[in-house]
Amino acid sequence: MDLNYTASELQFRDELRAWLAANIPANWNGRRPPGATMQEQFAYLRSWQKRVYEAGWAGVAWPREYGGRGASLIEQVIFTEEMGTAAAPPLANVLGLSLIGPTIIAHGTPAQKQRFLMKILSAEEIWCQGFSEPNAGSDVANVATEARLDGGHFLINGQKVWTSFGWAADWCELIVRTDPAAPKHKGLTVLLLDMKSPGVEVRPLRQMTGESEFNEVFFHDVRVPVENVLGDVNNGWNVAIGTLMHERATLGVAQQIAYKRQFDRLVDLSHQTDRNGAPAAADLVLRQKMAQVYAELEILRLNQMRSISRISQNGAPGPEGSIHKIFWSELNQRFQQVAQEVLGPFAQLEHGSEFAIDEGEWVYSFLRARGNTIEAGTSEVQRNIIGHFVLGLPRSY
Ligand SMILES: Cc1cc2nc3c(=O)[nH]c(=O)nc-3n(C[C@H](O)[C@H](O)[C@H](O)COP(=O)(O)OP(=O)(O)OC[C@H]3O[C@@H](n4cnc5c(N)ncnc54)[C@H](O)[C@@H]3O)c2cc1C
Predict the structure, then answer these.
(1) Ramachandran bin of 358, using left for φ above 0, alpha for ψ from -120 to 50, beta for the remaining angles
(2) What is the mean pLDDT of residues 251-258?
(3) What is the pTM of this model?
């Protein structure tokens, strides 16, 4: 693996860097404009994504015919790195861009690609992922939401849970049971569901960060046309696995840059934070812990290159993406713990408090990190995948 960029990759990076320097909105100051609700924040990020798309930077590695740039995966990684380094606002349609678009590219009909991909890139249509249910999380093949064929439509009844961005979504990649008599992995189908269809009910769930990023979604006799089957009927497991592998292999790319930027800020703050009459930076134990986080962030970057290299060679992520998923999610929890130790109790104050550090960013990221080892499959499940599919150990279940 060559970790150096080629001349054309460097040119791509420099052009993008210049565009970002000229176009990042002046009023963007981090996580959320003061006083903005989650909905206002989302509208802001949606219009930012539209601007990125119109300038030709969205879907860097997606085919040109569907609105992408037709560039390489490495350039896609450069895009993510530069967005992070410039502290640009994130793109709103995160699940559409990172998981669902690539799944439609892999399994969609030409008509589905034509219909959906460009609007994912422009953020005209926001997507959510309807996989988990109350009895189907780690064991996602256990889904009970049923889809019965009724003429040219499937009739959907059931419930999903933890549906991130369900409240904002126009469309959902939905996994349903189409053949209850078949073995559980064989009777599943993936549908592209219009979230505005009659019978779809979204109920936000409140998280410990105070936000309601995810939701319960209920389906009461919802009609989905058969043209909206993604892949083949009763072959939904293979389609869904493709989505999950993209999720595990790529979600950490943006995180790595965000953590690095946050870590640099922690180093700055450690010089200004008093600890027993001296700067926290001089505390021998804290220095050890910060150095350890720094070393692990470097390992994360190299692991990420390995995942990307694998996708470049094979066209799809493999189970090794699980190594990356475990590493970035557990590293972030260790990092946030160290940050709290370095910054002390003021880091626990939330946005809006006069004494909050960095407008409450640190308590937010500490609390949000708890979900990292659950979303996209828990650490235990990732270890099961590595044990079986990478090491060849017997299945654990
Ligand atoms: C922030 C966040 C965002 C999310 N967004 C979405 C989304 O957009 N769409 C979506 O569909 N889902 C989403 N999820 C749901 C997520 O995929 C599930 O929470 C996750 O797969 C775990 O399922 P569960 O919560 O049902 O836990 P369970 O599956 O009930 O697991 C409970 C515990 O048992 C352990 N366990 C289970 N099976 C095994 C096993 N075989 N071996 C060892 N240990 C095991 C687990 O590791 C866990 O500790 C999100 C979750 C979070 C936290």
Answers:
(1) left
(2) 77
(3) 0.93
Model confidence at 30, pLDDT cuts 50, 70, 90, reads low
With a CB cutoff of 8 Å and minimum separation 6, the contacts of 26 are none
Give me the percent of the chain exceeding a pLDDT of 90: 75
40 catalytic, yes or no?
A: no
- Which residue's CA lies nearest to atom 23 of ligand 1? 137
Hunting for tokens 């700067």 — which residue is that?
Answer: 279
Of 171, 108, 175, nearest to 136 by C-alpha is: 175
Checking phi first, is residue 46 left (phi over 0); if not, alpha (psi -120 to 50) or beta?
alpha
Ligand 1 atom, smallest distance to 134 CA: 26
Say whether pLDDT at 311 is over 80: no
Q: Which residues line ligand 1 (CB under 6 A)?
A: 128-132, 137-138, 162-164, 214, 371, 374-375, 377-378, 380-381, 384, 396-397
The token duo for 374 is 């659950």
Question: Is residue 174 within a helix (H) or strand (E), and if so which, with residue range?
Answer: strand 171-177
SS3 352: coil
Mean predicted confidence (pLDDT) in 172-179: 98
pLDDT at residue 340 is higher than 80: yes
Task: For ligand 1, pick from 162, 209, 245, 248 the residue to mutate: most ligand atoms within 8 Å of CB.
Answer: 162
Report d(CA 349, CA 286) in Å as an integer. 21
Distance CA 192, CA 120 (A): 13
Task: Give the DSSP H or E segment for 23.
Answer: helix 7-23
Q: Which of 140, 381, 382 to mutate to test the pocket of ligand 1 (most atoms within 8 A of CB)?
A: 381
Chain mean pLDDT for the chain: 92
DSSP helix/strand/coil, 187? coil
Q: In whole angstroms, what is the distance from residue 161 CA to residue 215 CA?
A: 6
Tell the burial category of 251 from Cβ atoms under 10 Å away from its Cβ (0-12, 13-18, 19+). Answer: buried
